[in-house]
Amino acid sequence: MLSLVNGDKTLSYRIYFVLADVHYEERKGLYIGQGITAMSRSGIFRVLHGVAVEMTERVYRLPSFNDVLEGEIFLQNLPSVVAANVLDPQQGERILDMCAAPGGKTTAIAILMRDKGEIVALDRSHNKVMDILKLAAEMDLNCIKAYKLDALKSVRKINEAGNVGITDNCTGATVTLGEDSDNCTGSSTKVNAEFTKAGEDSSTTSVVQTDDQKPDAKRYVSKALLRKNLRQMRNGPGRNNCSGGRVENSKGFLPNSFDRVLLDAPCSALGLRPRLFAGEETLESLRNHAKYQRKMFDQAVKLVRPGGVIVYSTCTINPGENEALVRYALDTYKFLSLGSQHPKVGGPGIVGSYKLSNQTYNEEWLTEQEAELVQRFDPSSSLDTIGFFIAKFDVGQKGD
Ligand SMILES: C[S@@+](CC[C@H](N)C(=O)[O-])C[C@H]1O[C@@H](n2cnc3c(N)ncnc32)[C@H](O)[C@@H]1O
């Protein structure tokens, strides 16, 4: 008998699992499962071995909220709401949400600010930025500005001429265009991208038909953009193009320019339910998540002003991406301190240490006092939430 628990207490879809050679190993409290895979219905017919389990009955009787009050309500799990509240945004402030799509926490923050102030919401995916814009429009929230930007490049660089701007990898021009792609050609075609400066931090890209072939450093087009436009001419704007196919690319932001920063980092997502371990993560991939998160955190530290706040959160139970990030942050940036969290709903973090096998140092986790200051949502606890982690940092004087 396979019983699953869903964090939102609704199971709208049939869920299939393929079980083969199931085994778990325990490493410092982290279970890594292999051989159990949650699959799509079509995917299940492509595997050669295994046992498929079809779950046909809901664990809970609560009906699905799909299509209920669409545009009126947006369901969130408890830890996400807590994360927005822990950030404690104030009206009139400038907030950065570094990895924002689909915009659940962004909109929760906007509501807490009563839509007064400015929330800059970033995601590296064009379509996901559209999702943020769509959600903000549905909820009638005007203080959210969403941009496509790789959060690893979210601090503007000062170039030799003293101008600010980031350079792309291909042309040296100040912005990269294209749907989910940073590749660019620099070549001119019938479909050009028009570069306009929209405010201090962003550039608006809108697609225009033109015969103007004059070379212009600020006019270039990516292959991805070309493909997208051909697709749009054939199929219409598509489900996500709520704002007429426009997406804003950002060139990055000035250091110390935000009152508060939320880094809801991409992670191994080992806290999500219902989900048996899919066997996709390895120890190496878990370490890679941690490295990626640290680089993003470094950007967050640069962007927040002295006296500001950074909230770091993940939906994983892997301490290497949670407590170890906090240790890194506190050891690297002496002007950061753990802030007391309100509301506090989850339990304390984990105290301990571990050694990365191919590195020469021990990564110490938190002291007991520090562990008390972070929130760890244990998916097996009676609170019945997804696994989640929240750390809040108060930012002191940065120095040079
Ligand atoms: C955990 S989800 C964010 C969920 C979101 N905060 C919410 O509450 O709705 C992580 C997001 O980070 C985005 N992402 C991953 N790497 C990124 C990067 N380098 N720069 C910007 N966004 C990135 C992913 O596209 C994904 O949408």
From TrEMBL:
GO biological process, one term: RNA methylation
Record: active site: C315 (nucleophile)
Binding site for S-adenosyl-L-methionine: C99, A100, A101, P102, G103, G104, K105, D123, D150, D264
Swiss-Prot/TrEMBL keywords: Methyltransferase, RNA-binding, S-adenosyl-L-methionine, Transferase
Family matches, as PROSITE patterns: NOL1_NOP2_SUN (PS01153), PUA (PS50890), SAM_MT_RSMB_NOP (PS51686)
Residue ranges of every copy of the SAM-dependent MTase RsmB/NOP-type domain listed in the record: 3-396
Top-level taxon of the source organism: Eukaryota
Presence of the UniProt keyword S-adenosyl-L-methionine in the record: yes
Molecular function via GO: RNA binding; RNA methyltransferase activity
Family under the similarity heading: Belongs to the class I-like SAM-binding methyltransferase superfamily. RsmB/NOP family.
UniProt-recorded name of the protein: SAM-dependent MTase RsmB/NOP-type domain-containing protein
